């Protein structure tokens, strides 16, 4: 604010801390604030950009300023615009520390705090005992609500988790590439098909009680020789006998 404002306030014996009511006649928006310094040019008022957004002000617009007094606050409820504030180790401690630079708070305003070079925007949902309170030299309880789009963010998070399906790939051995695995699978399928075709052919043409190999040998021999050949080919329970004690 300009130095002339300080001279006028001193002449009317304004109590400290100084609190002002700001009013935008074009939009009829109203809020409350304190003062940092009286070093601005005459007819000029400097305020944070987030406060200009609350009052729907543009640079060069006209605003009315009035000195006022507010009751000391006992309760404030905030709502951050994102979940980033909840990722801090102690959000309430961060708020208590950063709010020391504020003089007053008004219901419906949106304030900006800075912590570790990061900006956090918070809506003021409720203040007690009035809609505008002073937070200088007072014990004020702080409550933090979830963001308004919390359910939507949770739904998006669940949809992302559903898209992830683990263990859906093919098994691989250590040191084995995909080309060797594919060639091995193709060779196994070829061998299985050849074995199944041969076994089915031999089983279909073999007579009952004889194997296909004995039939092939017996076809080119006389009757007695074929009988001997079949006996030589298959002789069950032959060989030396062993016992457990030997």
**Strand ordering within the main sheet:** 6-7-4-9
- Report the end-to-end length measured between terminal Cα atoms: 114 Å
Overall spatial form? rod-shaped
Q: How many strand elements?
A: 9
User: How much strand content do the residues show?
Assistant: 15-25%
Specify the biggest β-sheet.
4 strands, mixed
Give a written overview of the molecule.
The protein has 7 helices and 9 strands, in the order αββαββαβββββαααα. It is of the alpha+beta class and 246 residues long. The strands form 3 sheets. It has a 4-stranded mixed sheet. The termini are far apart. Residues 198-218 have low confidence and may be disordered.
What's the arrangement of secondary structure elements?
Layout: H1 3-11, E1 19-24, E2 29-33, H2 49-54, E3 64-68, E4 75-80, H3 91-98, E5 104-106, E6 110-115, E7 118-128, E8 132-134, E9 141-144, H4 150-163, H5 178-205, H6 212-219, H7 223-233
Parallel strand pairs: 4-9
Antiparallel strand pairs: 1-2, 1-3, 4-7, 5-8, 6-7
What's this model, at a glance?
The protein is an alpha+beta fold. It has helices spanning 3-11, 49-54, 91-98, 150-163, 178-205, 212-219, 223-233; strands at 19-24, 29-33, 64-68, 75-80, 104-106, 110-115, 118-128, 132-134, 141-144.
Record keyword descriptors for this entry.
246 residues, three-stranded antiparallel sheet, 9 strands, four-stranded mixed sheet, single chain
């Amino acid at each position: 604010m300009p130095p002339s404002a300080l001279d006028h306030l001193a002449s009317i014996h304004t109590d400290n801390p100084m609190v002002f009511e700001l009013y935008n006649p074009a939009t009829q928006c109203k809020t409350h604030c304190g003062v940092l310094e009286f070093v601005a040019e005459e007819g000029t008022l400097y305020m944070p950009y987030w406060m200009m957004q609350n009052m729907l002000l543009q640079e060069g617009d006209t605003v009315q300023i009035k000195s006022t007094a507010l009751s000391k606050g006992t309760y404030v409820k905030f709502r951050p615009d994102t979940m980033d504030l909840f990722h801090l180790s102690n959000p309430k401690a961060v708020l208590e520390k950063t709010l020391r630079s504020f003089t007053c708070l008004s219901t419906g305003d949106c304030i900006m705090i800075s912590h570790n070079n990061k900006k956090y925007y918070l809506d003021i949902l409720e203040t007690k005992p009035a809609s505008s309170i002073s937070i200088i030299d007072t014990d004020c309880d702080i409550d933090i609500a979830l963001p308004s789009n919390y359910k939507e963010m949770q739904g998006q998070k669940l949809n992302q988790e559903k898209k992830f399906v683990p263990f859906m790939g093919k098994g691989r051995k250590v040191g084995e590439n995909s080309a060797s695995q594919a060639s091995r699978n193709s060779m196994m399928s070829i061998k299985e098909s050849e074995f199944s075709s041969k076994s089915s052919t031999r089983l279909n043409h073999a007579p009952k009680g004889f194997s296909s190999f004995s039939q092939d040998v017996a076809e080119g021999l006389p009757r007695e020789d074929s009988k001997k050949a079949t006996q030589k080919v298959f002789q069950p329970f032959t060989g030396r006998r062993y016992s457990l004690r030997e």
